[in-house]
């Protein structure tokens, strides 16, 4: 079957991937818009002022774009907008645990892990027995400057107030030499204008270059799994979902005649299909009652956000087509595009079926997992209503034991990973 997917290894712009992830995380509330990008931009400016190497500057940009990925709830994110926080809720450690095993992030992880360490808590560049990189203190200061910028007035009119607030914490909350570098950078209007520019991603691309790397399929899969954990580990109700979808979809793809390489890409689409849910508040994801009309409207945005985030990574074009259409139905009543059968590819149909089947067989806040018989009955009902592809429903039905067993195994592995990671934030 020719699906139009790239076979084998791919060359991916890791920077575009990070920009997309940061943007999705910050879509959860208008108050948080561009927060990660602002921190990355200001940390880069301070690092330049201090004469840090190009690799150190790039590491800080990466860490800035990812620093709050361990904060799962909207209430927690909004709490961090206060200038003075005494407890980071474990999100720094969670963020580190999420990225530490992906080799391109091996220098970025420690920066995320310690980005809320106060200078006064260790007196120099160490905290207890742990050596704290200088970049952590840069990231901490940039983060606190970012949350100090108000939307109520022109940013240049706020400069003196913010600079003075930072100065008062020099040698206490913030490292003196980093405060000095910040104050020097802050005298230039461009420091503030670029950090608050509406198209800040353009600024960061100009500063950092392409940051393109070659990823072998196992590395690309590892990156997709990292994103999967960030998406799903926000809640125990979703902790295993994308792993299950990925396993079911990749196996269905092989049974439908996809090549091994295309089936691997289908697995990646399964890991990434709910990427847009990062823009949905956890409070909605975990709500045990029926969603209000407004909450349902918020939830319905997520496949579109998946489409936009993955759309920035041109190398994942076909993965994006599959992933973004996982709520499209053959009767044209799906969302967000309302495509009819002529616009929904086989890959998208596989992912839609895999998503429904996996969701039916797992616990949700509003119900417990359905029995296999009940799930199959619903799938056949959706087939008869021309919502799901009948041939694919039959293919799943004929191979149910194999596919369901593989799904259960994949989700059990996700439970183990979730159980290891969540205590790390406590």
Gist of the model:
The chain is 58% helix and 3% strand. By secondary structure, it is mainly alpha-helical. The strands form 2 sheets. A two-stranded antiparallel sheet has the order 1-4. The protein has a two-stranded antiparallel sheet with strand order 2-3.
Keywords:
two-stranded antiparallel ribbon; 22 helices; mainly alpha; 426 residues; 4 strands; two-stranded antiparallel sheet
Model description:
- With 426 residues, this protein is mainly alpha-helical.
- Helix content is 58%, strand content 3%.
- It is built from 22 helices and four strands.
- It has helices at residues 14-26, 35-49, 54-66, 74-79, 91-99, 108-113, 134-148, 159-167, 176-186, 189-195, 200-208, 217-232, 241-255, 260-272, 282-285, 293-299, 302-311, 317-324, 346-360, 372-384, 390-398, 400-421, and strands at residues 10-13, 126-127, 130-131, 212-215.
- The strands form two sheets. A two-stranded antiparallel ribbon has the order 1-4. Strands 2-3 form a two-stranded antiparallel ribbon.
- A hairpin with a 2-residue loop joins strand 2 (126-127) and strand 3.
- Helix 2 (35-49) packs antiparallel against helix 3 (54-66), helix 3 crosses helix 7 and helix 14 packs across helix 18.
- The protein is elongated and about 70 Å long.
- Residues 1-7 and 122-127 have low confidence and may be disordered.
């Amino acid at each position: 079957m020719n699906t139009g997917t790239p076979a084998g290894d791919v060359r991916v712009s890791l920077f575009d991937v990070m920009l997309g992830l940061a943007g999705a995380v910050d879509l959860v509330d208008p108050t948080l818009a561009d927060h990660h990008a602002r921190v990355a931009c200001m940390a880069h400016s301070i690092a330049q002022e201090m004469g840090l190497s190009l690799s150190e500057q790039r590491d800080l940009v990466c860490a800035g774009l990812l620093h709050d990925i361990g904060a799962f709830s909207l209430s927690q994110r909004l709490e961090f907008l206060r200038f003075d926080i005494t407890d980071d809720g474990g999100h720094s450690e969670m963020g580190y645990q999420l990225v530490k095993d992906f080799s391109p992030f091996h220098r970025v992880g420690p920066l995320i892990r310690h980005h809320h360490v106060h200078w006064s808590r260790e007196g120099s560049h160490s905290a207890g027995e742990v050596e704290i990189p200088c970049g952590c203190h840069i990231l901490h200061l940039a983060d606190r400057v970012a949350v100090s910028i108000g939307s109520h007035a022109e940013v240049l009119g706020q400069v003196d107030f913010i600079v003075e607030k930072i100065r008062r914490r020099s040698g206490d909350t913030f490292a003196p030499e980093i405060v000095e570098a910040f104050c020097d950078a802050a005298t230039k209007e461009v420091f503030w204008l670029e950090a608050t520019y509406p198209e800040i991603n353009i600024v960061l691309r100009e500063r950092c270059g392409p940051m393109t790397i070659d990823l072998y399929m196992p590395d690309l899969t590892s990156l997709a799994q990292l994103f999967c954990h960030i998406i799903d580990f926000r809640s125990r109700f979703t902790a295993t979902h994308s792993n299950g979808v990925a396993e079911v979809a990749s196996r269905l793809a092989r049974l439908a005649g996809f090549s091994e390489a295309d089936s691997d890409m289908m697995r990646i689409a399964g890991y990434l299909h709910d990427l847009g849910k990062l823009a949905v508040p956890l409070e909605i994801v975990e709500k045990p009652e029926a969603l209000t009309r407004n909450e349902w409207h918020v939830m319905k945005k997520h496949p579109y956000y998946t489409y936009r985030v993955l759309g920035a990574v041109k190398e994942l074009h076909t993965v994006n087509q599959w992933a973004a259409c996982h709520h499209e139905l053959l009767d044209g009543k799906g969302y967000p595009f309302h495509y009819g059968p002529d616009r929904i590819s086989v890959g998208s149909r596989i992912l839609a079926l895999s998503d429904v089947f996996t969701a039916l067989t797992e616990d949700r806040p509003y119900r417990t997992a359905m029995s296999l018989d009940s799930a199959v009955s619903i799938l056949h009902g959706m087939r008869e209503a021309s919502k799901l592809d009948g041939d694919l429903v039959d293919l799943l039905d004929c191979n149910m034991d194999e596919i369901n067993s593989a799904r259960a195994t994949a989700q059990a592995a996700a439970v183990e990973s979730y159980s290891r990671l969540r205590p790390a934030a406590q």
